[in-house]
Design a protein that fits this description.
1 helix; mainly beta; globular; 10 strands
């Protein structure tokens, strides 16, 4: 009986080692170069509105190696977003939730030197003609412009919902 148990153990160990040797290595999460396209937004920012006044502060940091976490604070609203590149679909995804129970889901890509995300083609919207589009553009001086525009007619005309210039704060920066 001991011999049979030893033979079974040896056979199982051999099968496990063979299976492990034949299993191709899994890609490292976030190894796609696209997963770093939004890194220009990482930092602790003072955000200025077109009048030149500070509209709020925003801390953007990496979580779990892949996720970019946003934490916005202003006099009227606080909110957070999670941003991640989906390599299976080749798109960036953002989910925003705020202190007014607001929810905004966007998807998009980094093109022509800017990250642009929209809810234009996302399913489940209450009003298909209502479109949100946000573009983040890194500037040569290290600042970032965030321009959020909204359309009520499916993208024929647009109004600006928010236009902010992100300037690195003197507060400690995320690592």
């Amino acid at each position: 009986m001991k011999g049979l148990a030893m033979a079974l153990t040896t056979t199982m160990l051999g099968l496990a080692l063979t299976a492990a040797a034949q299993t191709p290595p899994q890609p490292t999460p976030c190894s796609a170069p696209e997963a770093r396209q939004f890194d220009f937004w990482i930092g602790d920012w003072d955000v200025y509105v077109p009048s030149g006044k500070v509209g709020g502060t925003n801390r953007i940091e990496r979580m779990y190696g892949c996720v970019i976490h946003e934490s916005w604070k202003s006099a009227s609203i606080e909110g957070q977003s999670m941003n991640v590149f989906d390599p299976d679909r080749g798109v960036w995804h953002q989910t925003w939730i705020d202190s007014n129970a607001g929810l905004l889901v966007l998807e998009g890509a980094f093109r022509d030197g800017a990250m642009t995300m929209s809810d234009r083609n996302l399913p489940g919207k209450k009003d298909a003609l209502q479109v949100n589009e946000i573009t983040w553009t890194p500037n040569a001086d290290g600042s970032v412009r965030q321009h959020w525009r909204v359309s009520a007619d499916g993208g024929k005309t647009w109004t600006t919902s928010f236009d902010g210039k992100y300037v690195k704060s003197s507060r400690p920066q995320p690592k």
